[in-house]
Amino acid sequence: MRIVDMGRWPLTTEDEHRHEPGGEPLWNESWYYDFVSEDGEVAGYIRLGLYPHWKRAWYWACLVTADGVVTRVDHEAPLPGDDLTVTAADYTATHTTAVPFGPARVGLTSDDLTFDLEWQPAAGVYGYAITPRYEIPCAVTGTIGGVPFLGHGERDHSWGVRDWWSLSWLWSSARLEDGTHLHGMRANLGQELPWPAFLARDGVLEHVEGFTAATTFDGDRPAETVLAFPGNATTVRPIAFAPVTLTSPEGEVAEFPRAVCAYETEDGRTGYGWTEWHQPPGWREHEWKPR
What we know:
Layout: E1 3-5, E2 27-37, E3 43-51, E4 56-65, E5 68-77, E6 86-87, E7 91-96, E8 104-110, E9 114-121, E10 125-127, E11 133-144, E12 147-161, E13 169-176, E14 181-187, E15 197-201, E16 204-207, E17 212-218, E18 221-228, E19 234-241, E20 244-247, E21 253-256, E22 258-265, E23 270-278
Parallel strand pairs: 1-10
Antiparallel strand pairs: 2-3, 2-12, 3-4, 4-5, 6-7, 7-8, 8-9, 9-11, 10-11, 11-12, 13-14, 13-23, 14-15, 15-16, 17-18, 18-19, 19-22, 20-21, 22-23
């Protein structure tokens, strides 16, 4: 498995496991799993976030179909053990990676959502430079509510301090019809940095220099984003939102409008994926556009 590691620390197979918590109250460790079918008709995501200093976990699960959006959001989930199994009163969620940087299997059993899905790596591992985090583009197979599913997505793992109530960001991941996986992220810091971005095709993942993004809004809802991959801008349009509201221990409120989206490159390729535009208090003071 090829690792494209942009960080100042080397990623190792140990990083697939849980990390020792830092001392900061906002230290957290999270795992994301996105998926979308080839035709964009079925999509969803799962996130498990551990907050050891709060003595609880956040668990999110979402499914988007033609019938609408079904979500399960639990911000008082019990902290799992090392096997990352969350056992709550009305659901059980499992997260298993038997081989580091290899296939990951996620299960959910509840009254309204049932997943049994596997993320099979498609093109290597991408390690961030600006925070301890890595992303893995994947093929995704399994069942949803007992119905077979075949599609694509991305899984990621991060650890460290994450202050949801002070920093806005954009994150986007998709697969195009020609098999190209794309990924880009930028935070709104008031300056441009070497943002985490990659393109992957035919099993080869490469870091992309010069990525940035610009978003237009309809009220508070993102209407369109242009991902500026050098040489081929990609337009992203939301299809369906699966938002989450985040309240801090001090009562601050942040909004997290995450959406399954349609993607179109300027050379005519299309595809589907997920984009998030995080909106903490005062986010309007910043803009999702290059400076």
